[in-house]
Amino acid sequence: MSDQKPLVRLENLTKHFPINKGLFFRKQVGAVQAVDNISFEINKGETLGLVGESGCGKSTTGRTILQLHEPTSGKVFYDGVDLTEVSSAEMREMRRNIQIIFQDPYASLNPRMTVGSIIAEPLEIHNIGTAAERKERVKELLELVSLNPFFINRYPHEFSGGQRQRIGIARALALQPDFIVCDEPISALDVSIQAQVVNLLEELQEEFGLTYLFIAHDLSMVRHISDRVAVMYLGKIVELAPRDDVYENPLHPYTQALLSAVPVPDPVAEQQRERVILKGDVPSPSNPPSGCRFHTRCPIAEDICSKEEPVWREATDEHWVACHLAK
Asked: What pLDDT digit, counting tens, does each position of 202-226 carry?
């Protein structure tokens, strides 16, 4: 980490999607509680890994930080500026500094546009440079992500998945941002390509001092790239700590279960270690359980867990957890 100043700060961020019923008179009958009252900070120059099962609210968190989803409540501060309070014109200007790399390299690139047009689009939107200068900048960006600059007139279908994701990274870098949300940027790629993309992200971070929110399922990859790790379950952050603390001393039962599912490259250790098998399915975010949201699947749950929501507390130095029973 290059600096300890928080570049991004979330305060009680909440995003609920309304559930409407009726054909003509649309009436709200409930809400999907995708993100529910979460708070954390991302320091300048660091990578915060955000992990959890599918549907727990990771991508919604990333998109709400960037104001691609309007928050239901709460605040998002970028470099001291509350993004929830700025006008659309001011937000448009702020987007030069905050970008996103999307999950699916097949769906996030317009098939009717050439690679040059895709990468140059942010520059055109913000009126940066002349047409000739933009073309040169696109070539620079393609070289930066290890693609041939002469591919500028090709279309997305002419590239592999890993190459397309590199194009997406080049587009995100076009405006020289400080903060990038990496929304599961490797989950749609072959395993052999995933490491190349992660290494590229690390090299770019070192070269340009970037700050990442790295959203992923793959806990081994998150350990490789992250400085700190936040674990999310059903719209809530349940644990947040420096990377090695999370992997070597997980406090929350959900984190312990996630880590027990990660294969160990030692056959003897793999046989000896204890697996934590979670019972049941993830409850619906439109009707989450009372108290601790994890209590319906928790192997150590007690009465208090179903009645009272656990307090978000610092269990040890910089190791935060939301669990009644965590020591």
From this structure: 999 999 999 999 999 888 889 999 9
Across-strand partners of 78? 8, 81
From 118, 39, 45, select the one nearest 71 (Cα to Cα).
Answer: 39
Determine the angle formed by the axes of helices 161-173 and 191-208, rounding to 10 degrees: 20
How many CB atoms are located within 10 Å of the residue 261 CB? 11
SS3 content of the chain, % helix, strand, coil (to 5): 35, 25, 40
Neighbours of 244 (CB within 10 A): 11
How many angstroms separate the CA atoms of 185 and 197, rounded? 8
Angle made by CA atoms 16, 21, 23, in degrees to the nearest 5: 135
| Token representation of residue 244 | 């090695």
Angle at which helices 115-125 and 161-173 pack, to 10 degrees? 20
Residues 242, 248: Cα–Cα separation, whole Å:
10
Nearest to 113 by CA among 144, 146, 153, 145: 153
CA 215 to mean position of chain CA atoms? 3
Amino acid at 237: I
Per-residue pLDDT at 4: 65
Q: What is the DSSP letter of 310?
A: P
Kindly report the pTM of this predicted structure. 0.91
The Cα–Cα gap between 89 and 86 comes to: 8
Please say whether the beta carbons of 190 and 162 come within 8 A. Answer: yes
Which residue ranges in the chain fall short of pLDDT 70?
1-4, 266, 269-270
Q: Which helix (H) or strand (E) holds 123?
A: helix 115-125
For the chain, the maximum distance between any two Cα atoms, rounded to a whole number of angstroms, is 67
Q: Please name the amino acid found at residue 74.
A: G
Grouping H, G, I as helix, E, B as strand and the rest as coil, residue 254 is helix
